[in-house]
Amino acid sequence: MTVWEWLAEPWSYDFMIRATVTTVVAAALCALLSCWLVLIGWSLMGDAVSHAVLPGVVLAYVVGAPFALGALIFGLIAVTLIGAVRSTSRVKEDAAIGIVFTTLFALGLVLISVTPSQTDLNHILFGNLLGVGDEDVLQVLVLAVLAGAILLVKRRDLTLFAFDPTHAHAIGLSPRRLSALLLGLLALTSVVALQAVGVVLVVAMLIIPGATAYLLTDRFGRMLLISPIIAVACSVIGIVASFWLDASSGAMVVLTQGIVYALVHLFAPRRGLISTASARRRRTRATAAATAGVGTATQPLR
Amino acid sequence: MLFRADAGPRPAVGDPGDTDPPPAVLVEDVTVHYGAVHALDRASLTLAPGRVCGLVGMNGSGKSTLFKTVMGLVRPDSGRVEIDGLSPQQARRRGVVGYVPQSEDVDWAFPVSVRDVVMMGRYGRQNLVRRATAADRAAVDEALERVELTALADRQIGALSGGQRKRAFVARGIAQQASVLLLDEPFAGVDKRSEATISRLLRELAADPDAPRTVLVSTHDLHGLPQLCDEAVLLMRKVLMHGPPETVLRPEPLALAFGLDVLSDHRGPDPADDREDGR
Ligand SMILES: Nc1ncnc2c1ncn2[C@@H]1O[C@H](COP(=O)(O)OP(=O)(O)OP(=O)(O)O)[C@@H](O)[C@H]1O
Ligand SMILES: [Mg+2]
């Protein structure tokens, strides 16, 4: 079998095409959002909101409402509760986040266990790419285009908010509204992505691509390109691999992203471990050579 | 110019010298609490346009709180704040207030260039997507030129020295066309030469005949104060004293603001060798 056949065969199945479209779209959206999450230091928040939407999604299923609505409501509840726990007790933010999202996640699990038709709902946890139907693909597309468009239109404001919220305030923007916008988009994105990889692994797609891109560039605009490109490539590779290995597709996609991160972490041109180590070796040698010990090239402190 | 804050209420516009324009910064009887912490106690401060004012006081005396109050980041329990005769909210909408953050409040590894940072000063004047126009780009170039960072404009912001970083943020305030610049401890971690450069830049910006800026700087460097400021404010929850730097920097007021031990450390600079031309 040639490489070409190996790559092409999966696409002869309709369900594989639907799975790939869903994953690629969800991964690209998560990757965009992850650029801001990683820079603001909201990775844990991404973890929290993506888990906390679970009861919302289950309840939406029960009453027959759109998943996105339930997810948004519970994303909002999670964020409000986290703020409340932190500000009305001496508990620090990471603990507050941990308390709230695990509790809401547990509530979701309880709801799943008491709701009839369990097979469907367990897919929310781990994704069910191969069972994605046409309406699911449509829903993912509509939500992703909406969220992606808002992110891109607001990208400069969101970047300003991430970099210097005080300045945003000083020129009349509202950091509170911008953070609410980002959190709302986070909830929406979680719904999109849980179709592909399930609630448990969404957080990986919300952190890894942005972190990978951050190691590769010093320009935020380029991060917004590199991050989705990496995520989309990993999705395709992961899905093809899962087809041939008969492995869980969502997990395979996330595993691929993790491997790519590791490679970049080691081999990135300027920030990778290998290149910084060899630069250090070069410098040490240069210092040793210059016996006077003056004129050592110093890098700016960061 | 010399007055004590507790000398009773003063009219908003009544300082000798400024009759027509509203004060650039007006802080009147402002009280701020953080929970149980009493950070500002009926602090009052009036700055005329085009003045450079140094804000001095020990750690925890409320300097940063005063800045936050002027910017509307902290809502005072009582009292009034006006900027150029506008409410803080109106002033923010018009981009009147430019802010240079304390170094520890900035993520220096953030992937933005110096030029990107300066361009952020223009956002308030741009459309919804903040698309830069030719005018925006010209304003950014001019601001970079003014602070002498043109050659470093495409560097990542963290790849600058401490003094250059401060100048980059001042450039953002220039590009913003802010008429009031607030700098919270710009000299922390900056060597004497860079400090002198920044001081000179701030004085030039204040004295600019086309667009005079009012500059409020908090600093712990008492010796550099006379080169930098037209006036100085001693803060200790309230405004203990406000006047020319040489007057404020005498041992007695300093002892009041910093505790008695300061008498042995800071005698205050000799006013005779610190005067600059034209003042
Ligand atoms: N967010 C906050 N919550 C509670 N207390 C605060 C907060 N910010 C400041 N304070 C307290 O208010 C008082 C004034 O603080 P502020 O930061 O204004 O002082 P400062 O003059 O800027 O000090 P420094 O020279 O150390 O920067 C201090 O006692 C401080 O502990
Ligand atoms: Mg301070």
UniProtKB/TrEMBL annotation, chain B:
Keyword Glycoprotein tagged: no
Domain ABC transporter, chain residue ranges per copy: 25-262
SUPFAM superfamilies cross-referenced by the UniProt entry: P-loop containing nucleoside triphosphate hydrolases
SMART domains xref list: AAA (SM00382)
A Pfam family hit: ABC_tran
Location of region: Disordered: 1-22
GO molecular function, one term: ATP binding
Protein keywords: ATP-binding, Nucleotide-binding, Transport
Similarity field: Belongs to the ABC transporter superfamily.
Protein name (database record): Metal ABC transporter ATP-binding protein
Species whose genome carries this gene: Nakamurella leprariae
